[in-house]
Amino acid sequence: MTKIAEKNKKALQIIVELLRNTEPLIKTKLVKLLFLIDMKFLEIYGKKMSELTYVRYFYGPYSRDIDYLLTFLNAKGVISYEEHINSDGKTYYLIELSNNEKYNEVSKSLGEKERKIIKEIADRYSKKDLSKILEEVYNIPKVKNKNFGEEII
């Protein structure tokens, strides 16, 4: 396991559990759902669920470690993380689970309260249009009141 993967074990588990509860997601939506999971957990339990640090970036909250974690999970055969080009010629990344046995192993140590919040966020947002999610996330005071590059949570 790489240093970044080792440091972010809980985030790996959250990504896998989130994908278990959704259809394939584009990367931007996955990142925002991870942020919303951490915000909800922080609101209820006073700490983030993951080890990720989110900063204000081009499309709102972002953690650089997410790219490494997705690449790691893809290399391990747990997820499929593929680049696509839409009809406008823009690149996007589609992420989905690819191996049931492997993802069960990765997410097995999540607790019931963690799974509940992940499912709640997945149910509420995974089918919602990305523009609506971005609008909601951008209006969260912890996001809105930060400058580009500043840490949010």
Automatic annotation (TrEMBL):
InterPro entries in the record: SocA_Panacea (IPR025272)
Pfam families associated with the record: SocA_Panacea
Protein name, as recorded: Antitoxin SocA-like Panacea domain-containing protein
All copies of domain Antitoxin SocA-like Panacea, residue ranges: 30-135
Source taxonomy: Bacteria, Thermotogati, Thermotogota, Thermotogae, Thermotogales
